[in-house]
Each structure stands twice: as C-alpha cells, then as structure tokens.
Specification:
The chain is an alpha/beta fold and 350 residues long. It folds into 3 domains: 56 residues, Orthogonal Bundle (434 Repressor (Amino-terminal Domain)), CATH 1.10.260; 133 residues, Response regulator (Rossmann fold, 3-Layer(aba) Sandwich); 132 residues, Rossmann fold (3-Layer(aba) Sandwich), CATH 3.40.50.2300. 46% of the residues lie in helices and 16% in strands. The strands form 2 sheets. Strands 7-6-8-9-10-11 form a 6-stranded mixed beta sheet, sandwiched between helices. The longest helix has 23 residues. The protein is elongated and about 85 Å long. The two termini are 46 Å apart.
C-alpha cells in the first residue's frame, strides 16, 4: 500500500486517521512493528478519503441524461416521476433529464431517437426498447461517442450497453407460474399469457420462465398467448376478446405486458372471471385493480431504487464514481391487497 496507490497525501491520511505522519508512513511502506489495529485505522481513513474525494469531484458537476422508453403511458409516466423524484438525492452532482416516451414498440423510432441524442450529446441514456439490430447499432454508436447506455426492465444484451437495471425476468415468470399453480391447484383450465410485444427481451424472458415452470408444476395445463398489442387497452381488448371466443376453459391470467383493465373487460364481456390474475407493475391502474380484488397479485420492484441505481451506473461509466458498472437484479416483491408497500403514491411506482 504505497503512497502512489492511495492517491492521498500522508498528511491528509494522518489527519483523517488521527495518527502521526510517521506512523502512517510506516503503514504505507509496510514496515514491521505496526499493530494490526493501526493498519486497519489507516485503511479506514483512506477509504473515507476516497469517498469524500468522490463527493468533491461530483460537487457542481452537471449530468444531462436521457430517458428513452417505448411503453404505455401509464408505465412511462410512473418511471418519469420516479426519476424526477430521485434527481435531487444525487447531490452534490446536479442532474437534469430529458424524456422521450412513446407508446408504440417501433425499433426504427427508438434507433432514430438514440441517433438524435448522439448528435446532441448526453451524459448517458436509460433505455427501454426492443432487442432489435437497429437498436443494437444505435447503442453501439452511442458507446463509440462516449455516451453510456443503461437498459431498463428489458435488456439489449448483445449491445454495448454498460449495464441492465431491472428484475430477473425469468425468475419473475417462474414466480408467476408458482402463484398460478398454487392458487388454482385443482384446476385443469387454461392460462392466458398476455404480452405487449414479442420484440422486448424482458417480456420474452418472463414468458420463458413462466412456461418452463408451468411444465414442471402443471404440465397438463394449456397456455394461450396474446402478443403484439403494445400493452394498449384498445388493442388488448380486441386480442383477448378474440382469444376467449376461440379458447374455452381459460381460468387464469399472467399479464406480462399490461393492459389489465382491458383484459378484465374482455372476460366480463365473455361472461367469465379468471380465478387468478398475476400482473406486473404497481402503476395506478394495477393498484386500483389490486385493491378491489380484480387481480390477485402484482410482481413489484421499486422504481425509484431502479432509477437511483441507473443514474449511479451512468456516473460510474463516466468515471465520476469509483468502480465499474455491473448488472444486479432488482429486488422483486409479490404484492397482494394486504401488503401494498407503504409510502408509495400512484406516480411513484410500477
């Protein structure tokens, strides 16, 4: 542990540790006769100085980031609110955000948006977009321009994104299958799986996890898929109505891509009520449906924590914080009408 390795003056370390410069010098040069407790004291002082140096480095520095999402408005507005709520907590750095939200899943539009950001400049991008070659290329161009990208909720794993923020989607799908089979253990009825778009990697991973676990726990139950609705109420209503007109005996729903009010409306119009309904995201719609018992459970992750982590990853990628960006799954919670997380408001959560 030489002086050069610490990056701090001996006098600063000595002041932080409450030791003499001579003692600190003996520790740094690994000389004999120094107690282990003294070494630990010096190491702690260096760690404290490292953290404080990062704060000083961030003081007054401005990060202009871009949130790019292709998602229904109910989710996009919740994410925007979560990010805006977290920005003040990132001080002493100063964060500003620009928002690019669209409801339709169109890879070409996402690529165009990312290219425009590259040309304007940005400190980093938080991205929810389809896993498509156009998007992969656009992320590559951003990385080449020195603009880091963090994918959110759904990954673009073979791009040059620096990290992914969100739940383990296969585990989420497996959890949904476990809940469906336990709550309808004696049923042989079919299960309806609804997606917003087959091009989102996160939704595909959820479905894979769900199907694999259903094969293990209830291999005789049929799974019926509705997809490419963009999670919008109008298209979801039409697609689910068409499925119910053809398929009989569906008594469970796993909603991967949203549009749950429309899905339930289609069931009512068909004179049916699903025995169990598992959904994602504690947005305003789902909270109301959960509280009134129309859906059984919501697989929830804290959006504000996700946004906070995404911003810190972008700072790491820019060298403003120590460490290298890495992907760690968000904590997932099974929320029922009886354990809604305290302190949340409709615009804060998914």
């Amino acid at each position: 542990m030489g002086k050069a390795a610490t990056g701090h003056r001996v006098s600063d370390i000595a002041a932080q540790a409450g030791l003499s410069r001579a003692t600190v010098d003996r520790v740094l040069h690994r000389r004999s006769g120094v107690r282990d407790a003294t070494v630990a004291q010096v190491e702690q002082a260096i760690a404290e100085l490292d953290r404080q140096r990062a704060q000083v480095r961030l003081s007054g520095r401005t990060f202009l980031i871009d949130l790019v999402m292709q998602t229904p408005h109910r989710f996009g507005s919740a994410v925007q609110s979560a990010l805006e709520s977290e920005l003040p907590a990132l001080r002493p750095a100063v964060f500003r955000a620009r928002f690019h939200l669209a409801e339709e899943s169109r890879p070409e539009r996402a690529a165009q948006e990312l290219d425009a950001i590259r040309r304007r400049g940005s400190s980093g991008v938080i991205l929810k977009a389809p896993d498509n070659p156009l998007v992969v290329e656009a992320v590559q161009d951003l990385a080449t321009a020195g603009i880091p990208v963090v994918t959110f909720v759904t990954d673009v794993p073979f791009s040059r994104r620096v990290a992914y923020v969100g739940v383990d989607n296969r585990a989420a799908g497996a959890t949904a299958a476990y809940l469906v089979t336990r709550w309808t253990a004696s049923s042989a009825g079919g299960v309806l799986v609804t997606l917003s778009s087959s091009s989102f990697r996160g939704e595909e991973e959820r479905e894979i996890g769900f199907r694999a676990t259903m094969r293990e726990l209830a291999p005789a139950r049929r799974i019926h898929e509705v997809t490419d609705t963009d999670g919008l109420d109008s298209s979801m209503l039409d697609a689910v109505s068409a499925a119910l007109a053809v398929e009989t005996g569906i008594d469970a729903v796993y909603s991967i891509g949203g549009g749950n009010s429309a899905t339930l409306a289609a069931f009512r119009a068909a004179g049916q009520t699903p025995a169990v309904f598992v959904a994602h995201d504690l947005d305003g719609d789902n909270r109301a449906l959960l509280r009134t018992g129309q859906i059984s459970a919501v697989l929830h992750h804290d959006l504000r924590a996700d946004m906070r982590r995404a911003c810190r990853l972008l700072m790491q990628a820019q060298g403003a914080l120590p460490g290298s960006p890495g992907s760690i799954p968000s904590q997932m919670q099974v929320v029922t009408p009886y354990n809604e997380p305290a302190g949340l408001v409709a615009t804060d959560v998914t």
